[in-house]
Amino acid sequence: MNKIRQSIREAILDSGLKSGMTVSFHHHLRNGDYVLNMVMEEIAKLGIRDLTLNASSLFDAHAPLKEHIKNGVVTTVLTDYMSAALGSFISAGGMENPVQFRTHGGRPADIENGRTPIDVAFIAAPACDPMGNCTGKFGRSACGSLGYAIPDAKHAKFVVAITDELHPYPLCDWSIPETDVDAVVVVDSIGDPKGIVSGTTKITRDPVGLSMAMTAVDVIKASGLLKDGFSFQTGAGGASLAAAKYLKDVMLKEKIRGSFGLGGITGYLVDMLNEGCFDALMDVQCFDLKAVESIRSNPKHCEISATQYASPFSKSAVVDSLDVVILGATQLDTDFNVNVHTDSNGCIMGGSGGHSDTAAGAKLSMIIAPLSRARLPIVTDRVTCISTPGSTIDVLVTQKGVAVNPKDKELALRLRDAGIKVVDIHELKALAERTSGVPDKPRLGEKIVADVVYRDGTVIDRIREVLQ
Amino acid sequence: MRRSMLFLPGNAPNMIINGDALGADSIILDLEDAVSPDEKDAARLLVRNAIREMGFIGVEVTVRINAIDTAYWKDDLNAIVPLKPDLIMPPKASSAEDMKTLDAYIAEVEARSGIPVGTIRLIPLIETALGVERAFEIASACPRVTALFLGGEDLTADLRCKRTKAGNEIDYARKRLVCAARAAGVDVYDTPFTDVNDDEGIVVDAEYAKSLGFTGKSAIAPRHVRTINEVFSPSPADIEYAKLVFEAIRIGKLQGKGAVSLRGKMIDKPIVERARQTLEAAEQLGLGGLEDE
C-alpha cells in the first residue's frame, strides 16, 4: 500500500472532497501554521466551494481565509478561538453565516456524536512515516502534543497527514496511528518555528500582575485544596504563570505532592513536574520549547486528546478531576459571567478554548484580572458576550481585592479567615468606574455574526455585528 | 503597623493608581530623585490629585518632598500638606534646624488648611555623613519626627565608597541610626535592597536589618514587599513564646512568687517588654495577640 501523495492537490482529489463538505484543521502550529493556508489555496484552485471549515483555533496567520470566505469557498466556520485579524473581519459582518464557536471539549464531543461530522481532516504533522504514524514531538516544526488533532483523525471520513519531515517506517512514538490516516503528503515546510512555540514563556514583571499572582496562591491555600494529590491548570499569560511560580514555591516549602498539572503546558509546569510538585503532566498542547522537550523525553509528561482533556460527553475527562484552574478574562460581570470572545468594542478577538470546560470541571475556578485594562474597567453590569457562565466561576482576583461568587459562601468565609481581602463584586465595579469612568457601550448592529455554543451543545450567547 | 515602605515614582500614574494594591504598609510617593527637574510640577500635581481622588485604603501615604536646599520644597508642601498625607519625608536631613524649619512651615500650611497643627508627621531621610552623625538631634528636633529613615545610596556617595550588596560600608550608619532613633523614642527604617531580581538577597538583608533593631525596611521593588512584611512580622514561635511569658507571670503571681522563670531562664523586665511588643504587633496584624491573653 502506498499512502504517499505527490502533492496536496493530489491528496484533495483522492479524498473525494466536494463542494458543501467539511474540512478540518488543528492549531498546534499556532501562529506559525502554513498548512491551513496551503490546503485552502489548493481547494480554491480546484473550484470547490461552499465548504464548512472546522478548525480547533484560528490565528492571525490564517488571515488569507478572508478571501476564501469572500469568494464563497468557505461559507461556514466552526472554531474554538479566533484572533483579531479574522475576528475583526467577522465582526464587521464579513460572513453570511454566523461563526459557531465551541469549546475545546465541546468540539470533539460534537465531532464524535455526529453533530459536526468531518469529511476530510488535514493534519499538520511535524514528524510522520510513510504510512501516516505521526507526532508533534519531533521534527524542525515540533510542537509537542497533537491533542486537538486526535479526534479529527479518529472520526474524519478521510485523513491527510501533511509533513515536512518524513521518517522511515515505523515512527514508533506516534500521537496519531496509521490506522487513522489515508494519505501522506510531504511539503517543504509546514510552519514557521518562531510562531509555533515560544522559546521561553516568561512570567510578568508587572508588579500589579505579581501582586495578583501572590493573592491567587493565597486563595488556593485558603481554599483547602492545596494538599497531597492536588491538581492544577493555568494559562500561559501574564499573572497566571507568575501564580504557577509562586505556587511551586509554596508546594516545595510545604512538601505538598500534587497528582497532575493539566492543559496547555509551559516550562513552569514542567519545572513543577521535575521538582516533584506533580506526579504527571496531562498535555493537550505545548506552549514552549521546554514543554516540547519534556513531552518528548519524560514518560510522566503524557499527551492527551482534546476528548480526554475536556469532552463533556466522554466517559470521563481530565477537567472533571481538576482541583484548581486559573483563567483570564477580557470582561466579567457582576454575575461572574466571563467574556473571552470580544474586546471592549465588541469585536471578536478570542474564544473559549478550554475556558468553559475547565471552569465547569474544576473545584475552584479562579479568574485573575486587573481592575482596569487600558483605562477600561474589567467588571461590568453585563458582559458583551457570555463565553463562560458565571455559575461555573468561583473567584475573581484583582489587585484591589478578591470577589467570591455568592454561591460559594463557605469559600468566602475561608478566605476571610485567612486574612484575604474579600470584596463584593459590585464594590470592585464601583471602584474601577470611580478610577476609570464608565465606558461607552460598543456600537452593535442587529446582524448575528457568531453563536457561542456551550460545551453541552446549547447556544449561550450570540455575537452581533460591530458598527463602524 | 508599619513594616514595609514602598517607593513609587511620583510621575508614574500606573504605579500610583495601584499603590494600595502592592501589599506595602506605607507607600512613599516620590517627588525627589525619581522625578527630573522638568517634571517636578507635573509629578506634584499627579501626586496631589492621586491622594485626593484615590483614597488609598489600608495603606499609609508618605510623600518624599524635595530637599530643603532646593527651590521646590515649599511648593511641594503647599500642594501636598492640605491633603493630609500621613508622613512627609524630607531628603538629605542633616540638622535639627532643618527639621524645625520644616516643622514651622508645615504648621503654617496646616493652619491655613484647617488641619490641626502637628497632624502630619516627619520621617527624615538620613543620607549624608553629617546626617548620620547628627541622627539623634534630628530625631529629637520636634515632636513631629516619628521615625528616622536610612538612605544607603546617597550616603555611600557622600562617604566616597562603593555601595555593595553585603553593605559593610553602611553598617556603622545602620547601627548609629538605630541607636539614635531608639534613644529619641522614635521608629527607624532601613534603606532599600536595590537588586530587584535577587529574591534571596532581600531575605538576608531584611533579616539583618531586623536583627539590628530596625522597625521595618523600605523597598523600591514591589516584589520585595511581601518578604519585608514577613521578616518584620512576629513569627508563630515568637508569639507562642510571648504568650508563655505572660502565662508564666500569671501563674507566678497566683503562687505568690517574686521571681518567675521560663524554660530555666529568669523572666526579667526586658523579656516582658519584648513579649509585650511581640503581642502588640501580632494583634495589629490579626495574628492573635494581647486580646487573647
Word description of this protein:
- The complex is a heterodimer of chains A (468) and B (293).
- A 10-stranded mixed β-sheet of chain A has the order 1-10-9-6-2-3-4-5-24-25. Chain A has an 8-stranded mixed β-sheet with strand order 14-13-12-11-15-18-22-23.
- Chain A has 15 helices and 25 strands.
- Chain A folds into 2 domains: 4-56 and 104-196, Glutaconate Coenzyme A-transferase, CATH 3.40.1080; 207-442, Glutaconate Coenzyme A-transferase.
- Chain A has helices at residues 8-15, 35-45, 65-70, 84-91, 106-112, 150-155, 193-196, 207-223, 238-253, 267-274, 289-297, 306-310, 355-361, 409-417, 425-436; strands at residues 4-5, 22-25, 51-55, 74-79, 99-101, 120-125, 127-128, 134-135, 158-163, 183-186, 231-234, 258-265, 278-286, 301-303, 324-327, 331-333, 338-339, 364-368, 372-373, 376-377, 379-380, 395-398, 401-404, 444-453, 459-466.
- Chain B is built from 12 helices and 11 strands.
- In chain B, strands 5-4-3-2-1-9-8-7-6 form a 9-stranded parallel β-sheet. Chain B has a two-stranded antiparallel ribbon with strand order 10-11.
- In chain B, strand 1, helix 1 and strand 2 (26-30) form a beta-alpha-beta unit.
Assign an overall shape of chain A. Answer: globular
Largest sheet of chain A: 10 strands, mixed
CATH C-level label of the largest domain in chain B: Alpha Beta
Second CATH tier, the architecture of the largest domain in chain A: 3-Layer(aba) Sandwich
CATH architecture term of the largest domain in chain B: Alpha-Beta Barrel
